[in-house]
Amino acid sequence: MEHTSQPRNALRELGVLFITLMLFWVMLVGTLATDTLLIGALVSLSVALLYRDGLSFFTEFRATPAAFVAGIRFYAYFFIKLAQSNLRLAAIVLSPDLPVNPGIVKVRTGLKSRMGRLMLANSITLTPGTLSVELDGEWLYVHCVTVGSLDTERATEEIAAGFERFLEVMYG
């Protein structure tokens, strides 16, 4: 039984990747013309076959009502953090004394899934003033324009904990 579920799971992941790529294709080209969809299907299938181990947003997603609610709350939280970070970085840039204290801090993530960790690293990187430098197991190294704390627990709370509480529900 274990042996047969492995190919089925790989086929499912291939299908999820193909569908995700096709959705991006349709959004990119903005048309449902048959020839365009055919080209998109060919390109999406080729990429999906070449990158079978690649991650899609839906890979490892827990399709439960709580996960969908957490997804909506995650994006709301992300956009709030994005706005706050933009304002904070603008204030730093516009300040005459340019109060920067750059450095790399070590953050611990409790997320177990690859996609959850990837979403965390990307969310941190997309937030102005921070850049995920390396993800090594449970450790995430983040470059900050202004380092708040070098203490791992405090840095984790400041940088990652807000995102993690939603990603844990979505991905585990």
Structure description:
- By secondary structure, the chain is mainly alpha-helical.
- The protein folds into two domains: 2-50, no CATH class; 65-171, no CATH class.
- It is 62% helix and 11% strand.
- The protein is built from six helices and three strands, in the order αααβαββαα.
- A three-stranded antiparallel β-sheet has the order 1-3-2.
- A hairpin with a 2-residue loop joins strand 2 (130-136) and strand 3.
- The longest helix is centred in the middle third of the chain and has 30 residues, at 65-94.
- It is globular, with a radius of gyration of 19 Å.
- The mean pLDDT is 86.
What's the overall geometry? globular
Please provide the count of β strands: 3
Radius of gyration: 19 Å
* Oligomerization state: single chain
Poorly predicted regions: none
Euclidean distance between termini CA atoms: 25 Å
Biggest sheet: strands, sense, closure?
A: 3 strands, antiparallel
Looking at this protein, list some descriptive labels.
single chain; 172 residues; mainly alpha; 3-stranded antiparallel beta sheet
Summarize the structure.
The chain has six helices and three strands, in the order H-H-H-E-H-E-E-H-H. By secondary structure, the chain is mostly helical.
Strand and helix layout:
Blueprint (H helix, E strand, L loop, with lengths): L1 H28 L4 H17 L14 H30 L8 E6 L5 H13 L3 E7 L2 E6 L7 H8 L1 H11 L1
Antiparallel strand pairs: 1-3, 2-3
Helix pairs in contact: 1-2, 3-6, 4-6
